Amino acid sequence: MKKEISISELAKLMRVSVHQIRYFEEKGVLFPAYIDENQYRMYGIDEIYRLSHILLLRKAGLSVQAIRHWYDEGTPDDMQQLLLESVYQIEAELDRLRDLSGLIHKVLNDYERFGDRAPSFQVIQREPLVLSSWFETDFNTELDARMLAQQGDTQPGLFETDIHYVYEEECLRRVRLCTKAIDMDGDVVLPAGEYLSCRFSIHDEEELKQHFDQFQAFGDQSPFVLTGPRILVEKSYLSLFTRESLHYELLARVDRSVGNAAEREEKR
DNA sequence: CTTCTCACA
DNA sequence: TGTGAGCA
User: Hey, where are the domains in chain A?
Assistant: First the structure.
């Protein structure tokens, strides 16, 4: 009985494919101890160790190229360096995955809180919001693909972040499309404070106008005044859950320093 | 059972 | 960076 083993025995022992062992040979990192008369590759104990190392390094994220290079002319310090670089990459990947997980949780949470519901009004306290303005358009013109494309390189991940439509005060003719500023160079700033918020979902753009009116009506019969721009936030990713509805939040800053509409009426 | 080669993801 | 098929 020979001391060496065939490629399939080695493959079974190391739980890899025969193919992969031959691939490592082609790439110059693992060679048989010798070739048998029948042209079969034969492997000894040294090759078993060598293969273990290769597999470990592959698992650690080193390329076969890099392994080859190290076997050719690598020092122990080089190996330490290679593994360090590898661990940095893995940690970067962990960060990426954490971000991704966070994004999905955010979507899930948002859906649970504001999924499909009748319009709900509430006054909420908001942190200052910095938006980076994107472009301006008319109230009536619908957003189309070309308008998006013409804006050139905007933020990546367009629809992961909510699109904010900021309507100019008083007349709602002009709309400013914004996204949340990632860095601090936003150009539209909404101050912290109390905001009236209404969340709703619609099936047709037509319904938007009604909600604006309802929103205004709600403001008029409340003990405060709505001030500043109306902000329509399109929760674009909530549309993931339903095939045919769009989700929005309508916001306006609350001003309690002025009397409400009814009181103003009295004073006249 | 092994080898090699080629195409493919 | 491997895999799968086909052939000898």
Answer: 5-74, 77-114, 120-267
Distance CA A93, CA A90 (A): 5
Q: State the Cα–Cα distance between residues A158 and A143, nearest whole angstrom.
A: 14
Q: Which fold has domain A5-74?
A: Multidrug-efflux Transporter Regulator; Chain: A; Domain 2 (1.10.1660)
Across the beta sheet with A41-43, the strand order is A5-6, A41-43, A34-35
Give the dihedral sign, CA A58/A63/A65/A68: negative
As to burial, measured by CB atoms within 10 angstroms (0-12 exposed, 13-18 middle, 19+ buried), residue A117 is exposed
* Residue A8 CB lies within 7 Å of the nucleic strand B: yes
- The A 158-197 residues near strand B by Cβ under 7 Å are none
Q: Please state the separation of Cα A11 from the chain's center in Å.
A: 41
pLDDT at A184 over 70: no
pLDDT higher than 80, residue A17: yes
Q: Is A120-267 assigned to CATH 3.40.50.1580?
A: no
Using only C-alpha atoms, what is the Rg of chain A? 32
Task: Give me the phi and psi of A91, to 5 degrees please.
Answer: -70, -35
The pLDDT of residue A267 is 42
- Are domains A5-74 and A120-267 of this chain identical in fold? no
- The overall average pLDDT reported for chain A is 86
* CB-contacted nucleotides of strand C (7 Å): 1-4
Asked whether A186 and A130 are in contact (CB, 8 A), the reply is yes
> Which nucleotide's C1' sits nearest to the alpha carbon of A65?
C1
Q: Nearest-CA neighbor of A107 among A235, A250, A246?
A: A235
Q: Report the 10 Å Cβ neighbour count for A222.
A: 17
